[in-house]
Design a protein that fits this description.
Blueprint (H helix, E strand, L loop, with lengths): L1 E4 L8 H8 L6 E3 L3 E2 H5 L5 H4 L9 E6 L3 H12 L5 E6 L4 H4 L12 H12 L6 E6 L8 H13 L4 E4 L15 H13 L8 E5 L5 H10 L5 E4 L1 H5 L3 H8 L9 E4 H15 L5 H12 L6 H8 L5 H14 L5 E4 L10
Helix pairs in contact: 1-12, 4-6, 12-13, 12-15
């Protein structure tokens, strides 16, 4: 079962990928949404969006936009940087995205318009894998409408579908409907339509630990992989944790994780691999999730999220660990049996 980093706006950049890589990495890293028009037009910050470290061969470029022609042009640009594939964002339901015709809006447009965009992209990506990240659809979702859309994706050459099984308005407070991941797999197997035999499915949504991972895998055992988003920000070692489950007892590796060092290295990478203008917003996005590891998360968030300077943020964290020293280290595996330290 492959483990994948989800495409998350302001989060799935090289600094986060490097944090994950320090714990062994994952099988695929989806980039945060790359705005096609901005990339094609040479936007000021686009060079940061198309950084591909630390494992370029595992990168999947996610493109978004309202103009199919621009998405196709952007696909040709990122193709030159290599990687595993090109993914079209058809699932983002942020109002500022879909109201302008991007993200999940592609699931609601006339089918021929979406087909035209897919054909143009397919023609520009060479041998890279072609995928789409989708939701169940709008609030008028029906299985018939959803599977008709899936059939269209396969007809136009999509060979991987990543499904976040919620509708446009369903928020994270409602559990993802994992049963639809299995239904999608069964539909693809049953139809056997054009390209169906080459299509893989990845499940996304609400996987945050071994229990939820095991539950999803039991519901949809024929998935090609599981995609993890916000939990990978809170715990960049989550992929190592899950990979460890699959190893025999003699193969398992165990090591301590210094939480201060995690924050120190991440913020240093953020300053290296993101523009200075992005530091404040992206560091705060990281800390919003990362600080949930601690007992007094609310206290820490109040202080750190009100600071825009790296030195101050790290100083606040250091002071916290002086008082809560038992929270500075967490352990991947058994605390009493450290086999290997990284």
């Amino acid at each position: 079962m492959k483990l994948l980093l989800a495409p998350m706006a302001t989060l799935s950049h090289e600094a986060l990928r490097r944090a994950i890589y320090r714990h062994g990495g994952c099988d695929e890293y989806y980039t945060e949404m790359i705005n096609a028009a901005s990339l094609v037009n040479g936007g000021k910050f686009e060079k940061y969006y198309i950084l591909n470290g630390p494992e370029p061969e595992k990168i999947v470029w996610q493109l978004t936009g309202e103009d199919g022609g621009k998405i196709a042009e952007a696909a040709a640009i990122v193709k030159e940087k290599g990687g595993l594939g090109i993914d079209i964002n058809m699932g983002c339901c942020a109002p500022e995205i879909y109201k302008h015709g991007a993200g999940i809006a592609w699931m609601m447009k006339p089918a021929e318009e979406t087909r035209k965009m897919l054909r143009a992209v397919k023609a520009n990506i060479g041998n890279l894998r072609f995928s789409a990240k989708i939701r169940l659809g709008d609030e008028d979702f029906t299985e018939a409408k959803f599977f008709s859309f899936v059939d269209m994706l396969m007809e136009e050459g999509i060979s991987r579908i990543v499904l976040h099984p919620r509708t446009r308005k369903e928020k994270y407070s409602r559990p993802a409907r994992w049963v639809y991941i299995q239904k999608l797999i069964e539909h693809i197997e049953k139809t056997g339509g054009k390209n169906a035999e080459n299509v893989t499915v990845v499940g996304n949504g609400c996987v945050h630990d071994k229990k939820s991972f095991d539950t999803l895998c039991s519901i949809a055992p024929k998935m090609d992989g599981v995609m993890i988003g916000r939990t990978a920000v809170q715990k960049p070692w989550i992929f190592a944790e899950l990979h460890n489950i699959l190893l025999s007892k003699s193969e398992k590796w165990v090591y301590p994780i210094d939480m201060y060092k995690e924050a120190e290295l991440f913020t240093a990478d953020l300053m290296t691999y993101q523009p200075e203008e992005f530091y404040e917003t992206r560091s705060k996005r990281f800390f919003t999730f990362f600080l949930d590891n601690f007992m007094y998360a609310h206290f820490l968030k109040t202080k750190i999220l009100n600071s825009s300077e790296r030195e101050n943020q790290l100083s606040i964290l250091a002071e916290y660990f002086e008082k809560m020293s038992d929270e500075r280290f967490v352990y991947l595996g058994e605390k009493h049996d450290i086999l290997q330290e990284k």
